[in-house]
Amino acid sequence: MSPAAEPVPDKPTRREQILAAAAELFARHGFHGVGIDDIGSAVGISGPALYRHFRSKDAMLGEMLTAISEVLLDGGQTRVDSARGPHDTLGDLVRFHVDFALDNPALITVQERNLGNLTDPDRRKVRALQRRYVEIWVEVIRAAVPTTEEPTARAAAHAVFGLINSTPHSRHLDRAQMADLLTGMALTALTHAPL
């Protein structure tokens, strides 16, 4: 009997490679500290060749932050849709956000630092997606801790995002230990704090 073939992950498209390289560079040097030539060099093409994939560096950032917000919103909604109960849903939501932050530290850093560098249309789109993601958290927190008022649940969600999103700046534990620590801290804060 032969072993089952492992699925081979799809090779990233050139566009995905460019966005990943740009995220790393933006996280390390800031949006304004990175030029088109830097991004092109990181993926092995000339800076001007990037214009075949993106109309500008601003367009790259807009697509990057919109995609992050869509992934978070879709992932959050998936956890709610497969809900098994309020406390399980809260745990699933926390674990999802922790995993995203730990697996995408450059994207988290870019998201935290560069919202102000978006064009107005991109900023409005990203903000709308982020508000919808926060609303998912507010509803889940209020279901898990029914005495929580809406403004308190909203503040708690943002506080937990701050805790989890600080992970790109900490390398004291391995990935699994950090995931357990952040998940435990977030769940304790949300379910045992005086909400």
TrEMBL record:
Domain HTH tetR-type, first and last residues per copy: 12-72
GO terms for MF: DNA-binding transcription factor activity; transcription cis-regulatory region binding
Listed Gene3D superfamilies: Homeodomain-like, Tetracycline Repressor, domain 2
Species assigned in the record: Actinokineospora auranticolor
One matching Pfam family: TetR_N
DNA-binding region(s), residue ranges: 35-54
Signal sequence segment: none
SUPFAM superfamilies: Homeodomain-like, Tetracyclin repressor-like, C-terminal domain
Designated name of the protein: AcrR family transcriptional regulator
Keywords in alphabetical order: DNA-binding, Transcription, Transcription regulation
